[in-house]
């Protein structure tokens, strides 16, 4: 679909996140060119733009700007190309764990979407990511023992601690209680990983309901542990949680996974790698995006306010979280199964209705399809889960991928240590003189 504006063809901005669109002045500055040159790049199809609602201005796709800048910088030598590779650029690490394609996500040669919709257990998919082989029969991970009474950790956590923050406190404690955590032969490390993932799922409720941790740990699967920990009585909750975990299990070199690999390359133990990954995941531009979507739906409140809130955000130049993904120009393939599950469970749930209304407003305004973050929040709302549970599903599911990349990095054996290109610091103004 294309639009006409000012005599030139303008494509929709292909599913970029709203906070990846920049105004003309910033776009020209990023490229180091005048606005006239920027407009020339647009007319040649090198940069995409989208109309700013309620104005005559356009906003420009940052990914296109950075790609064009990297191409120009390449003339300066390899350093500029390497620098650009760290910002959604060219691949920098060889990996066999997963592949992000334009229309699908592939785990070791298997479609993640197919694995999810066919009902393959999260544990089976984790084993696939770790070994390269999909189990021919369903696997069962043994339930680990409680490392210590959950109430001891609860006493240390402030009231209202989000589940991901609670898990971030838990993992180092589990590591400290594992005397052989630095002994890491592959099979022993996989056994450690199975215990750790089971613990993560069972302890998600420790800040609010420590009494449920032991019961959750006794469940047969990671998804069932989550359902018990969150005390959801929604029919098929375990099935839909399992599906979400499978779709989230890995996603190439996202920020948390890259962090886990860097940590693993230093020789750190598995708990340290997962702790580092959880820290990266907590950022608002990564796993914390789910929390931003939760805040958006809370701000909207009811479906009738969706257009008002969305348009006001856009008018102020603010982002609308939960839409678009740079790596999927035709939409994130993980989103539809999760969103369909949410709407099949409890379409009447307020959060589901509000999410659907926001989606319709964004779609009608020509914006990108929803991301997996919006789908996860809608599923959490449908299942009646507590705040922060969408980001927690993300964390527990992605932990399988973190382990896979830790194992792969250890096999490769080298330290990840990029170099910095030194630039002279800008001169700061004289603190002793006022500015008129």
TrEMBL record:
Recorded metabolic or biological pathway in which this protein acts: Carbohydrate metabolism; tricarboxylic acid cycle; isocitrate from oxaloacetate: step 1/2
InterPro entries: Citrate_synth-like_lrg_a-sub (IPR016142), Citrate_synth-like_sm_a-sub (IPR016143), Citrate_synthase (IPR002020), Citrate_synthase_sf (IPR036969), DNA-bd_dom_put_sf (IPR009061), HTH_17 (IPR041657)
Keywords from the named record: Transferase
Domain of life: Bacteria
Pfam families registered for this protein in UniProt: Citrate_synt, HTH_17
Family (UniProt): Belongs to the citrate synthase family.
Protein name: citrate synthase (unknown stereospecificity)
